[in-house]
Amino acid sequence: MNHCVECVVCKQMYDVTMNSERKYHCNKCYKKEYYEKNKQSILDQKKEYYKKNKQNKIQKVKEWQQNNEEKAKKYRKICEWKRRGLICQNYDQVYQLWLDSTHCDSCSCKYTNKNVKSMDHCHNTGKFRGIICNRCNANMLDKSKSTKNTTGHKNIAYHKCTNRYVYEKRYYSKRIQKQFKTKVDALCYKYIMLLRLKAGHFD
């Protein structure tokens, strides 16, 4: 037996047996109409609920952070590597290598507070190369030509996660970092900054 009726508001067919209490209105239209009529009371209820459960929510977040501190550290570290351009199939394996590493893979020196360990990868291809000390990582050169992961221009990098070109440079004590949609915009900004610096108008 057919129990479908046309909704008065949206003119679409709906099953009356599913909405017996609200005739001539489908479920979606009824909810919308109810919200418009009782908007203020619903917002007040939400505010009261938030005030009552604010402390409990903060406490739960703190407990979760304490219990999952190691997971949070791992997540932040992997996100940082991805942002810098690391491309690999198993990020968990790389993180485990980073945890287990005690000596530099390049110069075999022990890590210190000044010379910390860091993840080394090719800036042109994004391929993982090893866990090395900070000094070796700073002196490492990329011999292969630019393909996907870089722009081929100094101080301009392409971030895959945000799909943006980033210009980053330190002028005197100021660190400037700007994001652009296209490489041309980033290059234009770079040369404008160089002209300003040469003219002595940089502030």
List the helices and strands and how they pair.
Blueprint (H helix, E strand, L loop, with lengths): L3 E3 L6 E3 L11 H11 L1 H29 L1 H16 L6 H10 L16 E5 L6 E6 H6 L16 E4 L4 E8 L2 E7 L2 H17 L4
Antiparallel strand pairs: 1-2, 3-4, 5-6, 6-7
Largest sheet: 3 strands, antiparallel
Strand order across the largest sheet: 5-6-7
CATH class of the largest domain reads Alpha Beta
CATH architecture of the largest domain: 3-Layer(aba) Sandwich
Kindly state the percentage of residues in helix.
40-55%
Rg of Cα set: 28 Å
Average pLDDT for all residues: 78
Shape: elongated
- Assign the CATH topology of the largest domain: His-Me finger endonuclease fold
Taken in chain order, the helices and strands follow as EEHHHHEEHEEEH
- Which structural category fits the helices and strands? alpha+beta
Low-confidence stretches: 144-149
Proportion of strand residues: 15-25%
Whole-number tally of structural domains: 3
How many distinct beta strands?
Answer: 7
Straight-line distance between termini: 79 Å
Task: Describe the protein in words.
This protein has 203 residues and is an alpha+beta fold. The chain has three domains: 4-67, no CATH class; 69-149, His-Me finger endonuclease fold (3-Layer(aba) Sandwich); 151-203, Single alpha-helices involved in coiled-coils or other helix-helix interfaces (Up-down Bundle), CATH 1.20.5. Helix content is 44%, strand content 18%. The protein contains six helices and seven strands, in the order E-E-H-H-H-H-E-E-H-E-E-E-H. It is elongated and about 75 Å long. Residues 144-149 have low confidence and may be disordered.
